[in-house]
Amino acid sequence: MFPPENPDKNFYTNRTIQGQELGYPVNIYYLELSKLYMQRVRWHWHPEIEIMIINHGEANLITDDKEVRLKAGQGILINQNVMHSLQPVDARADCSLYSVIFHPSFLFGYGNTVMSGKYLVPVLSSPVFKIMLLDENDPFSEKLMDIVNSVIAAHMTKKYGFELIVKSCLCQFWIHLLEHIIPQNVSTTKQTVLSLDEVRVKEAILYIENHYSEHISLSQLADFVHISKSECCRCFKRTLQLTPIEYLMKYRIFKAATMLQCNDPVAASISGLAFSVGFNNVSYFNKIFKQYLKCTPREYKKGISTNPIDSPFNVMTI
What we know:
Strand order of the largest sheet: 1-8-3-6-9
CATH superfamily of the largest domain: Regulatory protein AraC
Oligomer: single chain
Strand content: 15-25%
Mean pLDDT: 82
CATH architecture of the largest domain: Sandwich
Structural class: alpha+beta
CATH class of the largest domain: Mainly Beta
Order of helices and strands: EEEEEEEEHHEHHHHHHHHH
């Protein structure tokens, strides 16, 4: 299709995309799920529009209330601030994809402009647009995917004026999207509303990401989002298929692996690394690390140092 572009190490580690220029808020990545942390894109959300195109294999795109299986020749359009994750259908099989991420300000400028009110709000607030499946066998989807492929080609070749070509293509993409969405949206002014579960889980995730190095109990998380412990567990289960504590453990191991990958001074000793990500017991830290990454922290560190280019340990994007 196109030559792979290596993903930025910071890709998906925050809800906003790192390294974007204000005048060109577009990023495109080629991802191989087998090389990502735990072979998946973890739960996240961001203010950008995202378009994923499956290049090879199959993957499941999961939101708080849907799971969509995607195969080669299909893609998915994801609205702003929709919490989602992606994982391979079969962890033993290869799955690769392109991810196109752009901020609507690239097309409509910043602030409440006339253009954004006329052409942006109807899409972002559409009750039918949270995610949208794209399939090359559907004429409408095929048209959109052809445009996305043109965006990928222009962005990756980076010939003179590529930013203008990308903007032109995304404008074409948007007008086709409007033509599809507006007829379905004529009879209603209802805006997309996040589920209460999703709102609560997002708040809890932000708390975990800000306090993961501290002692965090289920009671603290529940109190932070103003619900009972049992309801907190039910919200996480319904939304992420994980308990709050399971999510906390996975996030702590992710942070530990990231520190090892980046050769953080804190990771010079395994005990120091364990304490820095919230574990008070080094043996327990080693056990959980191996449970999730199938190797000990020392083995992980050795894998990075001995094979920094081709090793699956090398890519820490999630």
